[in-house]
Write a structure and sequence with these properties.
By secondary structure, the chain is of the alpha/beta class. It has two domains: about 20-85, no CATH class; about 100-255, Zincin-like, CATH 3.30.2010.10. The protein is about 35% helix and about 25% strand. The strands form four sheets. The chain has a four-stranded mixed sheet, covered by helices on one side. Helix 4 packs across helix 5 and helix 5 (about 200-215) crosses helix 6. It starts with a helix and ends with a strand.
Length: about 260
């Protein structure tokens, strides 16, 4: 039998080759664009799409595809990306007078330089108005901050309701502005959501909250998970379908 000590020493001394990672950008000749790669268990080939407004390239890939193959695929399709970018509708910059989707209705944005803070007003069925103050250069940021506060309040209520049903509580909840996913749940019960969900109808937000809370008990997407998710949110199918068909439209607004 060969001595184990030399083998162990070689493992300790020899550096490990870092695991290959999927590309996170694509070089378009003078500019780069973020790349979002989502492995999918049932995918048979690589499918590429452009995010709304050309904000990113999205790839759905087979579960066991190699990063090297994905990189080669991107290299071959630089022309396709440039063509789609040229034809893509521009992002809507948030400015006074713009109408945003909001909780299944419409939110009119206005600016009053003398105002401190944000003023919310109902203007009719399904129509609200948000007025923010400050310098015009900070208008979009102030609107974003106001929307994030509303999103946090809505999500905290929905999460608390669903978590109470399970008898489990998340350790923390954070808001992000992610393009690749609407929410996530970690093994240590930390929830994350895209604050843009506040622009969606309430039934879509409720489904998203139920989905991530269900992961507190089932960290998978198996049959038991979907049964639990439906128990928490009987209107699950409608919320899931809306996010799939309409959710990307909420990313067309620029808040910078």
């Amino acid at each position: 039998m060969k001595p184990l000590l030399p083998t162990l020493l070689r493992r300790l001394v020899s550096p490990r080759t870092p695991a290959a990672r999927f590309p996170d950008t694509i070089d378009l000749g003078g500019r780069s664009l973020p790349v979002i790669v989502r492995p999918h268990a049932t995918a048979k080939r690589i499918v590429m799409r452009l995010a709304p407004g050309g904000a990113a390239v999205r790839l759905t890939v087979p579960a066991r595809v190699s990063p090297k193959l994905v990189a080669a695929f991107l290299d071959r399709h630089v022309g396709w990306v440039n063509e789609r970018l040229a034809a893509a509708a521009p992002l809507d910059t948030v400015a006074p007078g713009l109408d945003l989707p909001f909780r299944g209705g419409t939110l009119r944005l206005e600016h009053d330089p003398k105002r401190r803070g944000a003023l919310w007003e109902a203007r009719g069925p399904g129509l609200a108005q948000l007025t923010v103050g400050g310098e015009p250069a900070h208008f979009a940021r102030r609107v974003r901050d106001a929307l994030k506060r509303e999103a946090r309040a809505d999500l905290e209520r929905a999460v608390a309701r669903h978590a109470a049903t399970l008898g489990l509580s998340p350790r923390a909840m954070v808001l992000k502005d992610t393009v690749s996913r609407w929410g996530s749940c970690t093994q240590d019960r930390r929830l994350a959501f895209s604050w843009r969900i506040v622009m969606a109808p309430p039934f879509a937000l409720d489904y998203l909250a139920a989905h991530e809370v269900a992961h507190l008990k089932e960290m998978n997407h198996g049959d038991r998970f979907w049964t639990l998710c439906r128990d928490l949110c009987p209107d699950m199918d409608r919320g899931r379908a809306w996010l799939k068909s309409e959710g990307s439209s909420l990313h067309r607004f620029r808040f910078d």
